[in-house]
Specification:
Elements lengths: L3 H26 L37 E7 L4 E7 L3 E4 L5 E3 L6 E5 L7 H11 L3 E7 L4 E8 L3 E10 L9 E7 L4 H14 L1 E2 L10
Antiparallel strand pairs: 1-2, 2-10, 3-4, 4-5, 5-9, 6-7, 7-8, 8-9
């Protein structure tokens, strides 16, 4: 017969066994974490947003450009167009060229005209460019876009556009912009603005295209 002392000891051992079993069950339910309070609680993963692409440092940015009217051509056949403010004319007359103060960017006009169509002049210019690493990017709608490597200035980009006043039969004006490949957005903006603001007064006796 068990004494009262032995009975108390057995009850204590039984209680410890039940406690261990219950604790083990809790571990199983909570995935082995005794501190988990809700097994259905999801943990959110916080990720930082990808860094925005920085603006091209030192590039010709369309939004920063302001324009002024420049007159050129001849007294009998005057022409005008808007070019970026601060770009100075390196030569005038029928083939003016306007350069930015650093000499990196330029826009050039040729108002002599041609009996060839814009598409013919695109093809002719493409085959006449003698530069290293020449790569033609597009040749659509009378506009030639290309890149090349200049010996002293490194990678360059040119965009040349020929404008017709008679439905594409002949060409009245050529506009060419030049810069670096990373300036493409700004160069396209300069070319389009010059095209949109081009004012060609066709006077009586005008012999263009010659």
């Amino acid at each position: 017969m068990l004494t009262p002392r032995h009975q108390a000891l057995l009850m204590t051992l039984a209680g410890m066994t039940v406690g261990v079993a219950v604790f083990g069950a809790v571990l199983a339910i909570n995935g082995g974490n005794p501190f988990a309070t809700d097994n259905n609680t999801s943990v959110g993963i916080v990720t930082s947003a990808p860094p925005s692409t920085p603006a091209c440092s030192g590039c010709l940015e369309p939004g920063s450009l302001q324009y002024v009217v420049q007159d050129f051509g001849t007294d009998d056949d005057p022409v005008s167009a808007e070019v970026p403010a601060g770009w100075k004319s390196a030569q005038d007359g029928t083939r003016p060229k306007f350069l930015d103060p650093t000499g990196v960017w330029q826009v050039r006009f040729d108002t002599r005209g041609s009996k060839q169509s814009p598409d013919q002049l695109v093809a002719g210019r493409e085959h006449s460019i003698d530069e290293r690493n020449l790569k033609v990017l597009s040749r659509d709608n009378g506009t030639l876009v290309y890149t090349y490597t200049d010996q002293s200035r490194g990678p360059r980009m040119g965009l040349s556009r020929w404008i017709s006043l008679d439905g594409g039969k002949t060409t009245a004006v050529e506009i060419t912009v030049g810069g670096r490949p990373q300036d493409e957005a700004g160069l396209r903006a300069v070319l389009q603005h010059a095209t949109d603001t081009l004012n060609l007064q066709v006077a009586p006796g005008d012999t263009r295209p010659n």
